[in-house]
Structure formats: C-alpha cells, structure tokens
Fold this sequence. Notes:
Chain A is mainly α. Chain A has helices at residues 3-23, 31-51, 56-78, 82-90, 96-109, 117-149. Chain A has six helices and no strands.
Amino acid sequence: MNEIILFEKFFWFGFAALGFGILFNAPPRTLFAIWLGGAIGGILKIILLYYNKDAIVLASFTGAIAVGILSIPIAHYRHVPPMIFAIPSVIPLIPGVFAYRTTLGFIKLTGAIGADYNTILAETMNNGLKTLFILMSLAVGVAIPMHVMRKESAKNIRLIKK
Amino acid sequence: MESSNTTEVKDLGSLLLDVGIMLLSSGASCSRIRLTITRIASAFNYHCYTTIGPKSVSLTLNKEDDNSLFNGMRSINQQGVNLKLISGISRLSWDVVIKNLSIQQIKTELNRLSALPHYPRLIILFLVSLSGASFCYLFGGNAIEMLITFGATFIGLFVRQEAVKKNFNQYFCVYFGALAASLFAGAFIKAGLPIDLEHAFATCVLFLIPGVPLINSFTDLIDGNIQNGMVRGINGLMIAFSIALGLVTAMHIYNFK
Lengths: 162, 257
C-alpha cells in the first residue's frame, strides 16, 4: 500500500469530519479532536478494505467502533458528552456513493423493462443493502462502547483501572 | 412554607421543560434528555418522570415528604442541530450537582447558552465546502472534480441557508440545496469537459446527508425508545428522499442518461 496516498487520505478524512463539526456547531475546543477522530476512523476503514475489498460493511463498522472508543477519553479530556465528538467523526464513513448509485438505480428501474433490467435490479439491491447496513453499523458502532461499559454517563467510565 | 415550595416546584418544572425542549430541538438522543433532566431534578431532591415525544416533552415532578407536585408539557417550535448547546447543557447539569446552583443561576446560564452564536457564515460555507471536496477525493475524484464539488457545495449550502431564513418547509430547503448543488456540478458535465465527472456529481450533495437523525434514530431504537427512533428514522429517510429528488430534477433538466 502506498504510504503517501494513505497519509493524504488520513488528512482529507479529517477535513470531511471537521466540516460537519462546524455545520453542527460543535464547540471550538472539540474541533481538533473531531478532525483526528474522523481521520483515524476513516484510515482504519481504508486499511481494512485494502486487505479485503468486499468487507465494506465490516470495515466501516470497525472504523465506527474506533471512533466510539476514542469518544470516551475525549469526553473526559474536553468535558463534552461523547456524542458531540462521535457524530461528526463518523460522518466521513457514510456511504455516499452507494446511496447515490441506489437512487440512480431506482430511477432506472422506473423505466421500461429492457434486456438489462435484471442486472440493474441486482446492482440496485446490492448498493441499497450496503448503504443500509453501513448506516446501521455506524450507529451501532458508535453506541457500543457506552453500552459495553454499562454506564449511563461517560463521566463514570475509566478505561484504565486506578 | 407551603407557598414557597409551590413556587419552587413550578420554577424548577418549567426550567426542566426548557432544558428538555432545548436538547430535543438541538438533536440530542432520548436517553441523554432523560438523563440530564433527572440529574438536575435529583440535585433538588425531586423525583422526576418524563415522557419524550417526537416533538414534545412532558414531565411530572414530586417530592416524597410533601405533596408539592408539578405536571407540565411543552412542544417544540424549531429544529436545527446545535452540538454547542448540548455540550453546554451537559456541563451545566454537572455544575448543578457539584456546585449546588440555584434555580435563578441555572436560568441565567440557560439564557446565555441559547444566545451563544454559531460560527460565522463564511467560515461555515468555506469549511463545509472543503469537507465536500474531501468526500470527492475519498470516493476517488481528482483535483478538478474536487474544485467542482467545492463550488457546488458552497452554492448548495448557501441556497439552503437562504431557504431556511425564508421559513420554507425543511424538506423543501433540502430539495432546493440539492437542486442548486447538482445543477452547478451538472453544468460542467453538460459543458463537455473531457473527463469523467461522476464523482463530482455524486458527492456534491453529501453536505445534506441526514447524519444526526439517522444515528440518533438507531441510538433511540437500541435504548428501547422505539417510537422516537422510528420518527427520527423516517425523518432521515424523508431528507434522503428530498436529496434524491433534487438530483433527479437536475438530471432530467440536463437530460443525463
């Protein structure tokens, strides 16, 4: 894998997250954390995809879990609820192109039934299900660390036992 | 003694309703709203029972040792994600527990929090456009496509902000934003640039994706707030549908196949 391209992607994943942090009016003291979180989650997905091209759902899920775990120390360090950091940071993992292709497929499916109708149907189904499952895995991945710890507030969670 | 208790419970009740409504309208999940309200109420030694609807919060407050009781409900007027408000209220609720703030102090702090400014408009436009360009790169676009996406996102977000200012229905605002962005990006394809611009066209509407409603929807579903989760999920789907409609309109105008 080309390290320079990997570094470039790291960089841009961060900016994709940062833009949404600004759009959602995140507190200024969390912006750098959001940039870093988006970059780490994204790059984890890219690395996993490099080893297994088909496991896009699993790769996105791993990225989201990483963001979810990171959100707890950042909640301590920056005194914010974990979701403030987690929501903008997982947004770069959202499957935009799959969603676009699904929409495009649906539009084509409303046309006349031609020779390639079955191919389009299969592709649309494939893209649509990928979109749905990636979205679900992002939401679950972010929420998992809080649920595993079985605490209602991140303030009571210590990752390292004292 | 009796009357002072009645005023206290009334003040606290309306304060907690304010907190709940502010959190709900700025995009907090149900469990967070309930947690914050209960935390503040228990700092004043009250038992608090809340029901959180899709667009309303209602609660009952009572004390065990006397019969001061409060029932109230309030509904939402405007929605817009505001993480600064959520984190501010979360900090405030801890301050109430640790520093024993009075009801008046909490009120002043809430007013200060709700008056906090958003980022300057130009910074929002610029950074969101930059994030659109990053999406374009990450999905495989080249430098020219990134520039086109930057411009399209800038114009789309501007149109959407103007539509929100003019009090259009929220789905119309999204539709206008998607239409403006995809018309801008499509113009370059129509002009016949000698490169494939699929990525620019696909990523120029990504700034509109309903990330917060969809993630909150699943958070609520996992916590067992099925009704709210379903409402938020359908809201997210409606937004996604509006985006798709904007894209389709642009594609039909330019007659793309």
